[in-house]
């Protein structure tokens, strides 16, 4: 995949969204400061007039009419879109033009999306996430601009006009025989074509083609299930027999870091997780999408900047992070991306300035001093919300940049005999001072003092040290016993964070009562 060189056009958009001004894959190796501005312009007015003033009633039926933007009028069809967001008073929309036009950027396209951002008082969460993603190795990230939507003569407030995620040159630009897929737990309810894998029950949905033939389904199912067999197999870390030959590592790592940075609500493989595959090639993650519930906000609650989210639950990324090589690559890549992310976050107040008047009017129109989603309001003003987002992301960056500890392996299987086993604990990231890592038994079926001995304790990593061993004394009582387990969890102080895996499960094989 590649990005075309694109220049923002349109009234008042001289400095709009330099997101996409250079190919992301080339930019990934650029020096600091080589990135353009991403500050938007003052929202232009986008006028939609439906034929006969017909209302847009649902997400299934298009209504015909016209769209006028930057002094140019286009024939269009418009309908609702979104899942839970369609139930909000402020509606999101899907637009299909009668002829291709470059509403954003310079590439004429037919399909566009109007994001309402109803749960984001700053209106900048998705915009900022797109800017971060566009500075990674991901193949394509949607461009967007802010507009004031006037529908049949009535202002609907501020919207984010963005490119649609679809397979086309200039968008998700993949081979003719390739597939754009989405991981979406709601695909049956949504009526989308898809399947669940046998091994992990991963919900795979066809986005393009959206009406696949039986051969397409068989081909994709076979490949994804072969990938999962390798990923969850005993040799999953093997460079040749494990999962790595199946995936584009760069896209998996960068997609994960963008999503984890924003603690995006649906990113732990619930929905809006896109992946493409070309037969004979590798699975590639992306593009990113849908960040209104992120950056300190989740559905009906606020979330702190500390703590993992995207890597939680049992899915592909979670499993990959149990591979020491993958975890090391993720930490190293974050070190590279961090300065770019910090520059973007520092520019949030500047990005908010052109939006302030339209954003304040939008909030007054739709929220009347409260919020549509409980937990999505973090300040009493637009500027306060922007400052909250800037501060939240600044704290998140600092937290993700701390040294990270985790077991080298999540599981260890041993025979029951008297011995001291020493599972290793790995530290990722540089540290100039000693770091203390605690450990304690948190469960299992084995009995302390009878089957093993391990009191709560700690490991100390002096500067430059990255590996330590945790001593577990196994006791052989020579009694006939079934398999037993010990679960050990890591804890840290404020100078490090617990990564993955944070729990080690020791399996003691069954004792046949030998004498």
**Based on DSSP secondary structure assignment, what is the total number of beta strands?**
26
Overall pLDDT metric: 89
The tally of domains stands at: 3
Contiguous uncertain segments of 5+ residues: 1-36
| Helix run count | 10
Distance between the termini: 64 Å
Biggest beta sheet attributes: 7 strands, mixed, barrel
Q: How helix-rich are the residues, as a percent range?
A: 10-25%
Which structural class best describes the helix and strand composition?
A: alpha+beta
Give the percentage of residues in beta strands: 25-35%
Describe the structure.
The chain has 515 residues and is an alpha+beta fold. It has 3 domains: 24-169, no CATH class; 179-342, no CATH class; 404-508, CalX-beta domain (Immunoglobulin-like). 22% of the residues lie in helices and 27% in strands. It contains 10 helices and 26 strands. Strands 1-2-3-4-5-7-6 form a 7-stranded mixed β-barrel. Strands 9-10-8-11-12 form a 5-stranded antiparallel sheet. The protein has a 5-stranded mixed sheet with strand order 16-26-24-19-21, with no helix packed on it. Helix 2 runs antiparallel to helix 5 (249-262), helix 5 (249-262) crosses helix 7 (324-346) and helix 7 (324-346) runs antiparallel to helix 10. The longest helix is centred in the middle third of the chain and has 23 residues, at 324-346. Mean pLDDT is 89; it is low at 1-36.
